[in-house]
Amino acid sequence: MSKPKIGVFSFASCEGCQLQILSIENELLDLLGRVEIVNFREAIDDKRNDYDIAFVEGSIVTETDAEEVREIRSHAGLLVTIGACAVTTGLNGMRNATERGTAWKRVYPDRELDPNVAPEVRRVSEVVKVDFEIPGCPIDRKELLYVVATLLQGQVPRLPTAPVCDECRRAGNPCLLDRGLYCFGSIARAGCEAICPSYGESCCGCRGLLEGAPIEELIEILGGKGYPREEVVVRLNQFNSRDEKVKALTEEQSRHRKEAAA
Amino acid sequence: MKKLEVNVHHLTRVEGHGNIKVRVNDGKIEELRLEIVESPRFFESMLVGRYLDEVPHITARICGICALGHTTASVRAAENALGWKAPDEVMWLRRLLMDGETIASHILHVYFLVAPDFFKVGSVIPLAATHPDVVKRALRLKKGAYDMCDILVGRKIHPVSMTVGGFTHWPAKKDFILVREMLEALRPDLDDTVKLFAGIAPPALDSPAEYVGLRSEGDRYEFVHGRVTSTAGESVDEKDYGKLIAERTVAHSSARHVSTKHGPYAVGALARYKLNHDRLTPWAAEGAKRLGLSPDTTNPFHNNTAQIVECMQCVDDGVDMVDRLLAVKKPPVWAPLGRKAGEGAAAVEVPRGILFHHYETDANGRIVRANCIIPTGQNQANIESDLHRFVPALIDGGKDADEIRLSCEMLVRAYDPCISCSAHFLEVELV
């Protein structure tokens, strides 16, 4: 049997998820023996077009991105998105809060808007069918290895669906809310081993929000800690601007602002 | 050679997407451009309205390779906006982290992205079969540098605990001791790296340039804090960086180029070496000697050589930082800084060169205006002027189109361009 062919592709992102793949030093040489990497621009010159698994990082921000990801889809057996940018739009989605012409003028004040820039930043799954998603900013190396190994065996990987709080308590961390800091651990998807709260930093929900996440309850708790509703909504938009509930909260905020101004 | 067209579409082995376009007619260069085709992400726009404490976590995501560098520039610019001065031990830990990131990035570049050219292969993957000891050494070095950052701030790619006002988690003594061991373990592999690269002559190119980087008021080869200094003899405080460099609109293009009053300039390992070679540790200075690196070099390919020297410098500096941190009696306790209207800028040396972050906040501590000036954006015009000297020399030397294409790629790679974070400073042609 020939070795499975793997392609790695990058759209708008920091390319940190590709680097996470390169950072699996101990397992990397072993993995290279088991698969054939056919398109990994960052590390290889050879460019060909057929893959059993295509890994895609990054958000879709231009019309060209959309065409290219459709092309990749047509050549791929399985398409797996890696990292927040691809899975939820991650930080890139914050651009959608501003009309693209305004965003453009802030960064390129002396140039006309490039029509190739799409009206909205999109997740990969808004453009093509995605077979599996590895969330996180960046992806977790162990989780990546687990997913690759499972897919190579022809099975479907399972990722945690519990809140980050579960993993945080198991790690024995003091609760950041008790210290008066904001934290999205109760509404965010686990699987990161609560790395941020373990290092004293608030969870910002980079792996996406849980289905049926108790957002209103958290907003109320944070209100009691001195975080106004508006601020919590701004912070929710950092990684989860594409989440339907966050979108609704954001629209409600801007309605209130307009009413207050009128 | 009468006519020549070199089009490298999707330059491989650089971070991000870049194209080189060279058109020669009747022996004259008619068109020469380094193009950037990265999808724009609009960071400066996204930052407007964000709370100052969010900004380092957001700007870390500009670049997966320089995440610690962006975070360092970001926290320092934010602290300058708030008028807060970090205590020594916080600055030491930041410098130790930049030592780790510099080693990690330089090793990745020199071994994974540059070395394949010298072994005449397309990537590091065939090298794993033909030169397993070289690839294993590269992986060991990179892993050591990554792991030490993981230990110190949770994660090298998008550091967790590095924030405005210091660190939300202070590493334990045993962590510092472990990091010291990891740094010491890099020494034999770096000696072998010097041995390997001392035997490989870089391509010849005589292309004098102005170089800009940090030079500290103290006596150290500095990455985290210093005066913005040029080899043309000028030096300004970081808040006055705009007096030394300026983003300008150029006549033939609508893009912003960065230049000093003298024109294009270069940043990166070679710039730092040229500005700080008198401050190398004995081991790093010995490395420079063995590699044949001299401060008056005019060959931009020596940037790769300077990267190896800097790896040695960063091991020595890192060990020194660990020793200082081990002597700290009371670790600093982090608390959120207040919110107020302010403006602050910071300059930090990231692996590819000097990086500027500049923010303005309103009274609620939310960003009103943000600007980031990134190394590759600063280097782009200089890379083009090098290519203007390099291509005619290659044609005169009787090289064919393939050799010229490869040589141009190698020159661009020598600058270690990190295009994913530089898109908006370069001429963006979306194709």
Description:
The complex is a heterodimer of chains A (262) and B (431). In chain A, the strands form 2 sheets. In chain A, strands 2-1-3-5-7 form a 5-stranded parallel beta sheet, with helices on both faces. In chain A, 40% of the residues lie in helices and 14% in strands. Chain A folds into 2 domains: 148 residues, 3-Layer(aba) Sandwich (Rossmann fold), CATH 3.40.50.700; 98 residues, no CATH class. Chain A contains 11 helices and 7 strands. Chain B has 431 residues and is an alpha+beta fold. Chain B has one domain: Cytochrome-c3 Hydrogenase, chain B. Chain B contains 13 helices and 14 strands. Chain B has a 4-stranded mixed beta sheet with strand order 8-7-6-11. In chain B, strands 1-2-3 form a 3-stranded antiparallel beta sheet, with helices on one face. In chain B, strands 12-13-14 form a 3-stranded antiparallel beta sheet. In chain B, a hairpin with a 2-residue loop joins β2 and β3. The longest helix of chain B has 31 residues. Chain B is globular. Chain B starts with a strand and ends in a 17-residue tail after the last helix. The C terminus of chain B is likely disordered. Classes of the chains: A alpha/beta (262), B alpha+beta (431). At the A-B interface, α1, α2, α5, α8 and α10 of A face α1, α4, α5 and α6 of B.
- CATH domain fold name of the largest domain in chain A: Rossmann fold
Distance between the termini of chain A: 70 Å
- The fraction of residues in strands of chain A falls at 5-15%
Largest sheet of chain B: 4 strands, mixed
Topology order of chain A in helix (H) and strand (E) letters: EHHEEEHEHHEEHHHHHH
Give the biggest beta sheet of chain A.
5 strands, parallel
